[in-house]
Design goal:
The complex is a heterodimer of chains A (492) and B (211).
Chain A lengths: L3 E5 L5 E5 L4 E2 L3 E5 L5 E6 L5 H11 L1 H7 L4 H5 L7 E5 L2 E7 L20 H4 L1 H6 L9 H20 L12 E4 L4 E4 L15 E3 L6 H5 L15 H17 L15 H9 L41 H13 L10 H12 L2 E3 L9 E3 L18 E12 L2 E10 L5 E2 L1 H4 L18 E6 L2 E6 L6 E2 L4 E2 L5 E3 L5 E3 L7 E9 L1
Antiparallel strand pairs in A: 1-2, 3-4, 4-5, 5-7, 6-7, 8-9, 11-12, 13-14, 13-22, 15-16, 16-17, 17-20, 18-19, 18-21, 21-22
Helix pairs in contact in A: 1-2, 6-8, 6-11, 8-10, 10-11
Chain B lengths: L3 E8 L7 H17 L3 H6 E8 L3 E9 L18 H15 L14 E6 L6 H13 L4 E7 L5 H7 L3 E4 L4 H15 L6 E2 L13 E4 L1
The chains are: A alpha+beta (492), B alpha/beta (211).
Chain lengths: 492, 211
């Protein structure tokens, strides 16, 4: 048994660990605490004054601003944030919480390994190696992306850039739709603490790659920032939802040197594989291996299958903003679009469909884009309206697709409420639910005190139901921000 | 999807017989098992093994990591070390097995070459003639490992500046060597520093660097 070491941390508390390296990262050696609630990671090389100050801030003031708040407990699930600093044998160490066990494979060929995001973001790895019970479904992958966008939004709101967002630095669990940002000790404070890495291949923004040959102090040199985090975030979301890289297409930018080709394809000449006008970087599906299909071929699975809200943001990230960082969507915009997209999904009617959920598109003959199963039956779509001034409702271009046993929440009933880390326990409870009952679609009121059937001009008491028929108008909430729904029925 | 071709040349001359070659086999299969747990490697890495003694054999043609099986490696009781001939075969196999960039199709990554020997090339003339051709093949890295007390460093230094020596030829040192090889192979998926483009991980403590 290794010796137990006891140290006093920078905040005066006692830190214990066994003197045995349990894991090694790029720059740190990791030791376990006896109770396995935290780890101590020591930098192998002595750190400089700048790093020391940065880490002091990360375990101190930056941590307090995010975690010593009413929402602090929520964020603890989304970050493995360093909490303290220690010194031992001339080395500096940080204390970090143990990763939750859901972020380790519990069975199968990779048992015990961390769930690095790459497993879930690559078509080949998903199709060929990943056990089916580890993949989650398309909806839980959407939830996972919401967590990532939310965590990045929080960092950016604090003025911090992660600077190395990649599937290596975010552990994910598609089964529960969870994500946790790790390696938060290398955070960058723009203008104060410069970045040490330019990022991880696949996620480095084009302007960073394009200028990496310049000296660090060159004014033209672009280094990681909140804007480059936005690029990495967009790539992550695209990859988790579509299992291919948005810039890896068929265009060859240097015939002779694959390294140079890579640099151009991810940098100066980067071009979205689904760019609507410049089609020169389209994927050549015949060059893909069978394991990369069907996800690898955008002709079979275009990015539009992610629905209208995400399509718009992908366009901003990879068309308008690819070489113009200021046009890239913010993490908050991604979060909002992802949350709204969860309201557009339908369960696939094919019990063997791996995706299980898909964004319902009623502009064409609706079918699951993943397995091809057409949708049969009647389906209500609730179009949301709200009243900026009293009594005059305008469309929000926001809708909710109904499915059997689906639930309605406060954030649907009122546009001033949005689901986030601030959502109270009370607001997390559904306020209504939908059923296909006695051959018609109904909404049962569970907790909407002033819901009203506008068409019939009568209130719907708690526990009562209202049928969802074509054109029916239902006011969900009479207060400010309260939404009106107009029912539309699709038949297939 | 581009592949990362990895060529491993292993000395199977008589002096490797017994514990040394058995340790190499264990090291290799541990390395394959480790790489198979690495999603980056599983997606891109292809491996080929060429053995050399008086015969030169490509015992494993370039194969995707997931699909390969390490064939049995056998060593004759005695005989010369035809490293030159092995490099000739390497050059020929690369022509056939590595996808070159064309205007229509992206090429594979620049290949990695590892050479492991416990002696010196017996076919000196062939060896010296082939070296310029090997250097022309545009390897991302050529790493030579001189194992044991009889390995000669000088000839290897003509092939690459990255020559490492293993003092002993036991299972522990080979294991550490192969752990390091798998780190080198996996480096493409790691964070890139602001000051350097690609930095190889440092060699394990048991390996001595010859500069």
């Amino acid at each position: 048994m290794a010796n137990k070491i006891t140290l006093t941390a920078n905040d005066g508390s006692i830190v214990e660990f066994y003197d045995e390296i349990k894991a090694q990262g790029g720059v740190k050696d990791v030791y376990f605490s006896p109770d396995k609630t935290y780890v101590v990671a020591f930098y192998r090389k002595p750190i400089n004054a700048n790093d020391r100050e940065r880490i002091t801030n990360i375990v101190g003031i930056y941590r307090q601003r995010i975690f010593d708040t009413p929402e602090g407990n929520y964020w603890k699930n989304l970050f493995a944030w360093p909490t303290k600093m220690v010194e031992w044998n001339g080395k500096t160490g940080i204390i970090m919480p143990f990763y939750d066990k859901k972020f380790f494979f519990s069975s199968g060929p990779f048992k015990g390994k961390e769930k690095e995001g790459k497993w879930f973001a690559s078509a080949k790895l998903r199709n060929k190696f990943l056990p089916a019970d580890q993949k989650g479904n398309w909806l839980t992958n959407l939830h996972m992306c919401i967590k990532i966008a939310r965590a990045v939004r929080r960092l950016h709101a604090a003025g911090l850039a992660h600077s190395d967002l990649s599937y290596k630095n975010i552990l994910v669990d598609p089964i529960t739709g969870s994500a946790c940002i790790i390696d938060d000790d290398s955070l960058v404070v723009p203008g104060k603490f410069p970045p040490e890495v330019i990022g991880t291949p696949d996620f480095i923004a084009p302007e960073v790659i394009e200028t990496k040959h310049l000296a660090l102090d060159d004014k033209q040199r672009k280094l990681p920032s909140i804007y480059t985090d936005r690029h990495a975030l967009a790539v992550l979301i695209y990859m988790y939802l579509l299992n291919r890289h948005p810039l890896r297409g068929g265009k060859v930018n240097d015939v002779n040197d694959s390294g140079r080709d890579e640099e151009l394809s991810m940098g100066a000449k980067a071009l979205f594989i689904e760019n609507p006008t410049d089609k020169s970087n389209r994927v050549k599906a015949q060059q893909l291996s069978p394991a990369e299909l069907p996800q690898g071929d955008p002709a079979k699975m275009p990015y539009t299958i992610c629905g209208p809200y995400l399509k718009k943001l992908f366009d901003r990230a990879f068309v308008e903003g690819l070489h113009d960082p200021s046009k890239r969507p913010s993490a908050a915009e991604w979060e909002d679009a992802l949350v709204k997209t969860t309201d557009l999904v339908q369960p696939c009617q094919n019990p063997n469909c791996e995706a299980k959920w898909f964004v319902f598109d009623n502009t064409t003959k609706p079918k699951c884009p993943f397995c091809g199963q057409p949708y049969h039956g009647q389906l209500p779509i609730l179009n949301f309206y709200y009243a900026p001034s009293h009594g005059k409702f305008i469309s929000e271009n926001y809708r909710l697709m109904v499915y059997d046993k689906q639930t309605l929440y406060k954030w649907h009933a009122n546009n001033l409420v949005s689901p986030s880390e601030r959502t109270s326990e009370a607001d997390k409870k559904p306020v209504g639910d939908f059923h296909f009952f006695n051959n018609q679609w109904i909404l049962i009121n569970r907790n909407l005190p002033d819901i009203m059937d506008v068409t019939e001009k009568k209130p719907i008491a708690i526990g009562e139901y209202v049928p969802l028929t074509e054109g029916r108008q239902i006011l969900l909430d009479k207060g400010q921000g309260g939404r009106l729904i107009v029912v539309q029925l699709v038949n297939n | 999807m581009r592949h990362l071709p990895v060529y491993i040349l292993i000395d199977t001359s008589g002096s490797m017989k017994g514990e040394p070659i058995e340790s190499v086999k264990v090291g290799l299969s541990d390395m394959i098992a480790t790489l198979r747990q690495d999603p980056y490697a599983l997606e891109t890495v292809c491996i080929s093994i060429i053995t050399f003694d008086r015969e030169v054999n490509q015992i494993l043609p370039l194969t995707e990591l997931a699909d390969l099986q390490i064939p049995n490696i056998i060593t004759p009781d005695s005989g010369p070390t035809f490293l030159g001939k092995a490099l000739e075969m390497l050059c020929n196999r690369i022509e056939v097995e590595v996808q070159k960039g064309t205007p229509e199709q992206k090429g594979d990554w620049r290949p990695l070459l590892f050479v492991l020997t416990d002696g010196k090339p017996s076919d000196i003339q062939v060896y010296e003639n082939i070296i310029p051709k090997v250097k022309n093949k545009n390897f991302a890295s050529i790493i030579a490992c001189a194992a044991g007390p009889k390995a000669k460093i000088e000839p290897l230094k003509k092939l690459t500046d990255q020559v490492f020596t293993l003092d002993t030829m036991d299972a522990t040192s080979f294991k550490k060597f192969f752990v390091w090889v798998s780190d080198v192979i996996g480096v493409g998926g790691k964070s890139v520093g602001t000051t350097d483009s690609l930095e190889l991980p440092g060699p394990p403590a048991e390996v001595n660097i010859v500069i």
